[in-house]
Amino acid sequence: MSAGPAVAVPPRDRLPDGAAVLLDPRVRRRDGGTTLLGGSPLRLVRLQPRARDLLRTDRLVVRDTATAVLAAKLLDAGLAHPEPDGAPAGRLTVVVPVRDRPAELARLLAAVRADPDTAAVPVVVVDDGSADPAAVTAIAGRHRARVLRHATARGPAAARNAGLRAATTDLVAFLDSDCVPLPGWSSALARHAADPRLALVAPRITALPADGGGWVEPYEATVSALDMGPRLAPVAPGTAVSYLPSAAMVARRDALGDGFDESMRVAEDVDLVWRLVAAGWRVRYQPSAAVAHEHRAATGEWLRRRFFYGTGAALLAARHGAAVAPLVVAPWSAAAWALVLTGRRSGALACAAVLAGATARLASRLARPGDRAPVGLAAGLVVRGSAAAGKTLARSVTRHHWPVALAAAAVSRRARRAVAAAAVADAVLAWWPHRGRIGPLRFAAGRRLEDLAYGAGLWTGALRARDLRALLPSRPAPMPPSPNVSRPTGSLVESRNSGHDGRTMDPEPADDHMTAEP
Question: Which residues fall in a compositionally biased region of kind Polar residues (predicted)?
Fold first, then answer.
């Protein structure tokens, strides 16, 4: 695997006194508050007596080394989220890469200067080979922005890196020219920098209202590939939010090191996030901050963009291996669904046996020493995991592996029925949470066209690179043992893997689903 540009080593500094974390509302307390079940991937965390005493409520305030260690463990397990407060932690520079978008640039800079939080911050506009550089320079001048120019287009990664090198502040905000930040966006993100291990944080990308956007606009406004959803989240491969789009993000300048990989014209944002996480930095998603984005409305342009996104998976596979697997599912889940799809009674009985065995193994793993195995909990997780696996498999059939599904459907009636059922089920399940915003037929048409375009790009990129890793499924990785904390505090928690998100890896937000892995 290719290492890519270097990022900095995170400091060993702990969370500062006064910092607070709040348990995720979906975390379940069990065994009288001695265990926590939640996170992404799903895990069971046993609290040692001292940690249980510290975490009497859902909110933990850092007051000493022990509380700092416990707060950090909860954050890193995805069980809690920071509660940043007070003034932004560090000064900010806004970096805007642009090429041939003078009207959009003017709109963005006007919004930056109209926001009291960013009215006086340094702004660096990097003109990446615009055909009319004078127009870019004039617009930047009207909004008190410095201009750097590339004589020829070198790509968005190189443009952002040029702005990164020119910045002298602690924090750097990257904003694409087709964005319009909403008031207060920067402060909500900059407060996260109070965590010394926080490298990157991004807002929610919403749709910029458009007039006459055509039939694509309602679909994009509902489920844009740039929108990571309404929930706070840590960001890491294999989790509910596995990457952040570079359309809008705030970074700790020193953490980025050499910055984006300039050899990548697509997926460079995913690559940067994964390199930072691998180095030990924290990356977070903060949806209370919002930046509007002008989504592509023309059908052809929209589909070409989805195709382009798909080609990036092969580049990520060369750098990050199995982290880019398009399908992550536990073997027992895959076996259970394969047996169901035989359509035979014997297959259904065998599926039930597989699920029963998975339940027994998972219950054994979750059992406390000397206590009865929690069969009910394990059964619930297995059922939940099986449902998530089914949804993930259906998504793979219609998006990542549709050429294989199409070939199978051409020669097999049973395959045709299975592919049709997967396409309908995937569209209905994805549409249902948004049923008040868009009709089912428009949504289904948009989803199927988007999936065809992305899948075509995925296969094109893999074949072009002669590297099929971006097409190969993977199983959930086992969670490494939870390390003990420093000697003065002793071990506060014990973590056990109780599952993994069933997911597909591509530039769209991952569904927050889980497959329990015995």
Answer: 484-496
